[in-house]
Amino acid sequence: MTAKVFIDGEVGTTGLQIRARLEARADVTLISLPEEHRKSRLARLGAFNEADVAILCLPDAAVHDIASDLRDLPCKVIDASTAHRTDPDWEFGFAELDQGARARIAAGKQVSNPGCYSTGAIALLKPVVDAGLIAADHPITINAVSGYSGGGKSMIADFESGRVTGGFVYATGQHHKHLPEIVLRAGLTRKPIFVPQVGQFEQGMIVQVPLHLAPGGPAAALEALAAHYAGQRFVQVRSRADLGDRIDPQRLNGTNTMELTVDGDPETGATVLIAVLDNLGKGASGAAVQNLNILLGLDEGTGL
Ligand SMILES: NC(=O)C1=CN([C@@H]2O[C@H](COP(=O)(O)OP(=O)(O)OC[C@H]3O[C@@H](n4cnc5c(N)ncnc54)[C@H](OP(=O)(O)O)[C@@H]3O)[C@@H](O)[C@H]2O)C=CC1
Ligand SMILES: CC(=O)N[C@@H](CCC(=O)OP(=O)(O)O)C(=O)O
């Protein structure tokens, strides 16, 4: 038996990488629309009707525009966009979030993939909040650097045409679209300050959370992360030395793995939580395929 999968937005950055992961699989049949119909509502609704699972790889506005039409169709839906990440009618598709996450995803009809920065930030923050190392209203700052593919086709064109060089800091006004999902899913009650930047490299990401903890803080935080993710295949807790002196944001490109580590000064408690992931792997397309596998009742690493 093969599952019929429709990727809406399959020629976009996230869609292409999902397709690359699925097209060789014997257990998946891809439903594809010809170029001239790929934005036709009628053609897309036909594809949704035929699919067992649809994966939305569209800008938020296009997702909002189609989502209500999908609710009554039999196909299950995975949404890669920001549109439904805090929506209680959608399952949050971070399988490693807590003990019940996989079962909730498996039973879901609609699953929302976490964002790339938020995958790193939530993965680092939830265990330290749950372990009581910081309070839910602790003042938190998140720093992050992403490859330019994080901005989709238009940002890739900006860099590859030479219109933008060297990278930039942005979203300093504290309204980044990932903040609401980070607050909700990490169990925070106070919005962190989030300072993302884009570098002159295509793909890959580092998310860092500096924290003032009590003396011994770095070891306590590492222990909390290791306990939370014990036995997980795609979220791995490493010693700081494993990542090298200069942490390369591209080190996990092409994989669905996210590595977490902690550094800092045990005497003062100055602690830095660090996550490395591929923004298009565990940060988007890999996570979507992992969720697809869970929805289909397959080994969740199939094709990853
Ligand atoms: N890039 C990343 O690292 C990540 C992306 N995401 C999310 O995934 C989603 C897709 O992003 P990304 O792939 O980067 O974006 P891209 O701009 O690269 O791709 C979006 C695709 O959607 C197509 N599209 C736009 N409107 C419609 C429509 N009405 N009907 C059908 N197709 C449409 C676009 O068509 P056209 O080619 O004609 O422009 C394009 O091919 C976004 O919501 C994004 O936030 C999530 C995590 C990480
Ligand atoms: C580098 C860059 O621009 N990154 C995007 C986030 C990646 C993305 O596409 O966002 P979602 O995960 O929310 O869908 C941004 O900051 O808006």
Summarize the structure.
This protein has helices at residues 13-22, 41-50, 60-70, 101-106, 116-130, 152-160, 179-186, 217-228, 281-295; strands spanning 3-8, 28-31, 53-56, 76-79, 91-92, 110-112, 141-146, 168-169, 193-198, 205-212, 235-237, 258-265, 270-277. It has 304 residues and is α/β, with parallel strands linked by helices.
- Cα(first) to Cα(last) distance is 20 Å
Helix vs. strand class: alpha/beta
What is the H/E order?
EHEHEHEEHEHEHEHEEHEEEH
CATH topology term of the largest domain: Dihydrodipicolinate Reductase, domain 2
Largest sheet: 7 strands, mixed
What is the mean predicted local confidence, pLDDT? Answer: 97
How many discrete domains? 2
The second-level CATH architecture of the largest domain is 2-Layer Sandwich
Rg to the nearest angstrom? 19 Å
Can you tell me the CATH class of the largest domain? Alpha Beta
Low-confidence stretches: none
Oligomer: single chain
* Bound heterogens, unique: NADPH dihydro-nicotinamide-adenine-dinucleotide phosphate, N-acetyl-L-glutamyl 5-phosphate
Overall number of strands: 13
**Outline type:** globular
Helix residue percentage? 25-40%
* Individual helix count: 9
The neighbouring-strand order within the major sheet is 8-9-7-10-13-12-11
GO cellular component, one term: cytoplasm
Catalytic activity: N-acetyl-L-glutamate 5-semialdehyde + phosphate + NADP(+) = N-acetyl-L-glutamyl 5-phosphate + NADPH + H(+)
Pfam families: Semialdhyde_dh, Semialdhyde_dhC_1
Family: Belongs to the NAGSA dehydrogenase family. Type 2 subfamily.
